Amino acid sequence: MSKIVLDKILRKFPDDIINSHNYLGNETVIIKKEALLKVCAFIKDNRQLMIDMLVDLTCVDYPEEAERFMMVYHFYSTENKYRIRIKASVSEEDPYIDSITKLWKTANWPEREVYDMYGVKFNDHPDLTRLLMYEGFEGHPLRKDYPITKRQPIIGPLN
Amino acid sequence: MTENKITNRNAGDLDSSTMHINMGPSHPAMHGVVNIQVDIDGENVVDSKLEIGYLHRGFEKSAEYKTYKQVIPYTDRLNYVSPLLNNFGYTLAVEKMLGIDVPRRTKFIRVIMGELSRLTDHLTCNAAVMMENGGFTPFLYYMKAREYLYALIEKVTGARLTVNYSRIGGLRNDLPEGFKEETLKIFTDVEEIIADVDKMVTRNRIFMDRWKDTGILSREDAIAWNITGPVGRASGFDYDVRRDHPYFVYDELEFEVPIGKHGDTYDRYLVRDEEMHQSISIVRQALELIPKGPISVDDPRITMPSKTKVYNSIEGMMTNFKLVIEGVKVPAGEIYSFTEAGNGELGYYIVSDGTGKPYRVRLKPPCFYNTQALSSMIKGNTIADIIPIFGSINMIAGELDR
Amino acid sequence: MPTIKINGQELTVENGTTIIEAAKQIGVDIPVFCYHEGLSVAANCRMCLVEVEQNGRKFRNPLPACHTMAGDGMEIDTESPAIKKIRKGVLEFLLLNHPIDCPICDQAGECYLQNHYMDYGHYDSRQEFEKVKKNKATPIGKNVILDSERCILCSRCVRFTNEITKTDEMIISNRGNHSEIGVFPGKTLDNDYSLCTVDICPVGALTSRDFRFKKREWYLTKTSSICTGCSKGCNITFEHEANDIYRIKPRENQDVNKWWMCDYGRTIKNEINDNRILKSLINKEEKTDSEAIKSLLELLDSYKKKENKVAITINAHRSTENAFAIKYFFSKYFNIKNFYIGTKKDGNSDDLLIRSDKNPNRKGLNLVIGDNLKTDLQKDLSKYELVIQFGSELIEQFDESKFKNIKNFVVFATNKNSVTDLANIVIANKSTAEQTGTFINEDGRMQRFFAVINNKTYKPSINGVTEFKNSKENLQETYKLISEISKLAGFDLRFNSIFDIMNLMKKDLKPLQDFKYSSLGKNGLIIEGL
Fold first, then answer.
1. Which residues of chain C are within 8 Å of residue A145 when distances are taken between CB atoms?
2. Together in a domain, C437 and C340
3. Is A66 an 8 Å CB contact of chain C?
4. pLDDT number for residue A157
5. Is there a contact between C426 and C414 (Cβ–Cβ < 8 Å)?
6. pLDDT given for residue C521 in this prediction
7. Is residue C91 in a domain?
8. What is the pLDDT of residue C250?
């Protein structure tokens, strides 16, 4: 149903696309992380697509791949009811990616949560601090090599 | 270390600087545990910052170590006032990945039980908002109505909150005898209670003064902050997953979606109130149309064999062994599947690697995005307004922090 | 170069490619029992049958995909209804006499019969007679146990002992449904690769005596690593749970060890599990890591102007990154110039995988330390008053009588043995398996190994939770200990991960100038210019 979004992106940015698929009816495109802001601005401003809502923003960890973290963004158009998923991979040696808070202000908290849980850092984020974990927490819990029963040094009250 | 001041003023300003106070995390009006740090100037809120994460229990991490069936009890504890809606959203996502379609009776039962859960969610939210504004009587009335519903849910699933009712490919058990008559009887009582409270509260001068024109959220802001559900609909954002992307049998049932105009706390109360009536109407229609039949799909990849086969043949032994140990093997891939929960679009993004355990389960929590907009909603209002505004966005800590 | 179509998808393959290899290239899975890529084709299980049509003419019978060469114009169907029925039939025949052993069989969870039945079977048994009984649980060598009832006569073990090890120990005797696998009369299965037969057996007929009844397969976490037994650097997988490593299996690497590994490499897990140093010691008393490091720093300070009396030995079992971190830190900040390599003495070799050089990273140390690397510590021992040894392996340069006379002997140790009994200061650190890094094998191939992470640091008990008795949770990596020494000495050098070390290595070492970890790939990378 949202094939038009996929076609438009494939036609406009042919060099930045790594892969795309339509598994189970979810249109997905995998792009290079440098092209993220370009593609997001394009789908937001294009008059035919009008993708105005960022539905969700998250990350998946593949520890034995070359680029370890895969950022996943879901978008929705309230007018035309199109859905698209954009993925961009980030490596562990260079864990920086652009923040999209300038385009969608709702990306603020999800990006803080991805930083908290995975350690991916966002350029130009207004306040990149831990969201769900307390300050003084060591490590990034949702990574695959963080043991599920690991203990943390317990800290006392601030004063 | 958090700074003591969120907004920095010049030292040369003659007027006094703002005061920084903490509301929470242990506060009678904070639903669950949340810390709101406000900068106030007199009584008006200048700026605020929220600190969340007090109820983080690691749902997404735990789900990576369990089979698909073992994740279902974890989903109960997310939005714990409407656990059935979370269950059904999760099993719908896994069933889509497996490519199976549940029997028709199951779809009707899921709609009925889901709407009962939505009723308990809206009853709790409206009751809490009214109680925090001083109306203890309507709160208790709604609690009585909720008790009828919880007793009914307990008759079907065995528990009030930790229901664990849905299964991949069906349900745990069928509806008991006499369910239809009992539900219709309860609905007359519940509707009477809602009508009584309506008379007490909806045109009441006190509540209208406190709720009208506070916590305004415009339609553009609702879309920009990704707010769906009753909060978004009260701001004029006309989006309901049941009507726009129907699942189960919602396309065969008739219901209306109430839309607000002003986006203030009063509109959010009214939208939830009307949605309760719509839920009751949906359940009444579904109880008329529900067919007889099996409740679980009969797929050998998913159903367990009988014990005679297990103990007497190697084939039965292997099936039982693999289904318990490895779980249902879901083909590799990913899906984003969404349903309408009590607070908005509840999404599950599941990544599978072909084995019986999910590789990544991400819950898109509607409360999370609703609560993120709180800072902009309480700006310019007084401290006394924070309580009804915060109550009306229905933040459930279990879903916010997972 | 024939062009064929598999399930509607067209591809061109080399001459002599079989259908099963062509299908693997495009990701089509064909179930097998007797086919193994490293062995010759037997085609006796008939599970891989596919329907073939060539130039408009359909072959009358389905053909085995493992043995049929792809011919030009072939159209192959692997999912037709007839093929699905054939697979059910093959499974039904194989399972007629198969014992109901799943609860007590070691192979449950990784058994080909279980997996193929769950994917392609789903039929109900029609058997109404008794199953044939054979011998159960008979040891046929010092490592392997045979259970004849479970065998499906795929003959993989027979072909392995004929073609790979060329020792001809396994045979098939009798006929009909009394056929069974066994050893040639008078022989036992005791070649150097006997546990590979356990790996390739698709069912629980051949099982390992060492692993028997120890752990179920689904509890085991699998981590890719490199064997430290000799300089071949075979790719292995550690299978571990909680505090222990239960099993080691080989990983496929066509450039190094193909699909096999030797039996000695499977015993390296004993060193990692048992007899570990868990707390640092000063003169045999337990102290914290920082106290041990402080006393090491005091020693180093006392030799400030006499660096020629200090020697550092790095055992050739340390990873390339750790070795560089040690050399960089001690040569730059403490001005130490005497670096020695500690090696295990040479042993046997054969023409398959075993190499005589029993050190995994000799070439890595040569690269990292360069020309100053000295090899004969035992000759120069009398010159030194402080010897710091990184690693507690029993190296050939260690002579107990001579090392007793060193004034100060510091060891960064993993295991308790005669080396640590002699040392004044013992600093506990993680073993190579628990760290991540790279080794360079004898051909100059750099391969990465990943850390064995313990996912459970405590276990539930009646009073709450208890730590595992010999929990290795608090041990530190070698580069973290170097950072700790640097911090306590007041320097600002810190290594937070191997990526920090590699950034420095790229500047200092010419062969690694343009190196990136992602270029290692699955098979490792030959480093030029060593």
1. 451, 453
2. yes
3. yes
4. 45
5. no
6. 84
7. no
8. 94
- Selection from A9, A68, A74 nearest residue A19 by Cα: A9
Q: Does B319 sit within 8 Å of C117, measured CB to CB?
A: yes
d(CA A38, CA A60): 22
Could you tell me the pTM of the whole model? 0.77
Binary contact (B245, A81; C-beta < 8 A):
yes
List, as ranges, residues 315-344 from B with C-beta within 8 Å of C. 315-319, 321-322, 325-326, 329
Rounded distance between C-alpha atoms, residue C242 and residue C456, angstroms: 5
Secondary structure class of C243 (helix, strand, coil):
coil
Q: What is residue C240's three-state secondary structure?
A: strand
d(C-alpha B115, C-alpha B380), whole Å: 36
| Residues of chain B above pLDDT 70, percent | 96
CATH of the domain at C514: 3.40.50.740
What ipTM was estimated for this complex? 0.93
CATH of region A3-123: 3.30.460.80
Cβ pair C456:A147 closer than 8 A: yes
Contacts of B312 in chain C (CB under 8 A): 100
Per-residue pLDDT at B10 exceeds 60: no
Q: Is residue C98 part of a domain?
A: no
Chains interfacing with C (3 or more CB pairs < 8 Å): A, B
Domain membership flag for residue C119: no
The C-alpha atoms of residue C200 and residue C193 are separated, in whole angstroms, by 12
Any chain C CB within 8 A of the CB of B291? no
Nearest CA in chain A to B374: A106
- The residues, any chain, with a CB within 8 Å of residue C464's CB and separated by 6 or more, are none
Rounded mean pLDDT of C254-271?
Answer: 92
Span C142-199, pLDDT tens digits? 999 999 999 999 999 999 999 999 999 999 999 988 999 999 999 999 899 999 999 9
Question: B74 with B62: CB under 8 angstroms?
Answer: yes
Q: Does C102 touch chain B (CB under 8 A)?
A: yes
Range 126-155 of A in CB contact (< 8 A) with C = 145, 147-151
B318·C123 Cβ contact <8 A: no
C202, C313: one domain: no
- Rounded to a whole number of angstroms, the distance from the CA of C176 to the nearest CA of chain A is 47
Q: What is the pLDDT of residues B191-213, one digit of tens each?
A: 999 999 999 888 889 888 888 88
- pLDDT reported for residue B14: 53
A145 vs C453, C457, C518: nearest CB: C453
Which of A24, A56, A131 has the CB atom closest to B96's CB atom? A24
Q: How far is A54 from chain B (nearest CA, A)?
A: 6
Instruction: Tell me whether residues B372 and A133 touch, CB distance under 8 A.
Output: no
Q: Please check whether residue C117 is in contact with residue B318, taking contact to mean a CB–CB distance below 8 angstroms.
A: yes
Q: Are residues C269 and C286 in the same domain?
A: no
Q: Does residue C389 carry a pLDDT above 70?
A: yes
- Interface touch B360/A60, C-beta < 8 Å: yes
Is a pLDDT exceeding 90 seen at residue A118? yes
- Torsion, Cα of C115, C121, C126, C127 (10° steps): -20
Closest partner residue to A149 among C451, C458, C517, by Cβ?
C458
Using CB atoms, pick whichever of B300, B313, B322 lies closest to residue C125: B313
User: Is residue C208 situated within a structural domain?
Assistant: yes
- Containing domain of residue C325, as a range? 280-526
Q: In this predicted model, what pLDDT tens digit does every residue of C430-475 receive, in sequence order?
A: 999 999 999 999 999 999 999 988 766 666 667 666 666 677 878 8
Burial C151-184 (b: 16+ CB within 10 A, else e): bbbbbbbbbbbbebbebebbbeeeeeeeebbbbe
What are the tens digits of pLDDT across the range C327-349? 999 888 888 888 888 888 888 98
Q: Which CATH class is domain B59-299+326-401?
A: mainly alpha
User: B247-293, pLDDT tens digit by residue?
Assistant: 999 999 999 999 998 888 999 999 999 999 999 999 999 999 999 99
Two structure tokens written together for B320 = 């039982």
